[in-house]
Amino acid sequence: MHEWDTDTRVDATGDGRFTAHLTDRWGSAGDRPNGGYLVAFCLRALGEVLPHPDPLVVGAHYLRPGVVGPARVDTELVRAGRRLSTGEARLSCGDREVLRVVASYADLGAATGPTAVPGQAPDLPPPGECVDVYGGLRLPGVTVADRVDLRGPEPHGWARGRPSGAARAEFWIRFADGRPADTASLATLVDTAAPAVLELGVTDSATVELTVHVRARPASDWLAARVATRHLADGYHEEDVELWDTTGRLVAQSRQLAVSAGR
């Protein structure tokens, strides 16, 4: 079993309910479980109750920080159709709801129709010719940085103590233990890298809402990531992420709205 599979396990207890356990191995700044890690519990539970295999659209609203320890996921089948099925999942720690997710699932292996993708994957050297984008830097409590391998042509400016002033980056990403990326784990991967807004001198952020569009089943472990923030206003900022596999196919897009944790 790979780390992601072990650490996002859910056990059915009946009537669409599941038990889970949040570990401290996917922590973000402030000793909070990472947002993409929390979403994984909801998607794994919904994957057990919906008839289609692949998350297609995921909308996650963060109500309060998660807490390491026992948790519960309550699911509801909203609709099951021929092409799409939709469900809702609520992740709770103790008696407090932490995260609410509404997701539609499909069978991407059977998807057909017109295709036009004018964008291109990031033009990066092979992963073996790249370096750790954090330059070896690890912040206390940010254990999610050890769960993924991020490589780029050079370390990020903020990691060298010199924020570039341009909140965008391109780099390779994969699970550090070599777990193959799949549609269930893409909603985790889009949220595991340090936020691009660090290049603007913002040292911390907390996600308010995360939307993920899964476009295809990945054909490679390494994925090329493009991350950017265009607008920072009154402490709130968006972050857009694209993930492309090594065949040049777009496999996931996401946008999240986040707020400086100091607010």
Describe this structure in words.
- The protein is mainly beta and 263 residues long.
- A hairpin with a 4-residue loop joins strand 6 and strand 7 (85-93).
- The longest helix is centred in the N-terminal third of the chain and has 15 residues, at 35-49.
- It has a single domain, classed as Acyl-CoA thioesterase, double hotdog domain (Porin, Beta Barrel).
- Helix content is 9%, strand content 41%.
CATH topology: Porin
Beta percentage is 35-45%
CATH homologous superfamily placement: Acyl-CoA thioesterase, double hotdog domain
Can you tell me the residue ranges where pLDDT is under 50 for at least 5 consecutive residues? none
Order of helices and strands: HEEEEHEEEEEEEHEEEEE
Shape: globular
- As a whole number of angstroms, the C-alpha radius of gyration is 18 Å
Oligomerization state: single chain
Largest sheet: 14 strands, antiparallel
**Helix-strand makeup class:** mainly beta
CATH class descriptor: Mainly Beta
Determine the mean pLDDT. 95
Number of helices: 3
What count of structural domains? 1
Give the helix proportion (percent range).
under 10%
User: Termini, distance in Å?
Assistant: 39 Å
**Number of E strands:** 16
Under the CATH scheme, the architecture is Beta Barrel
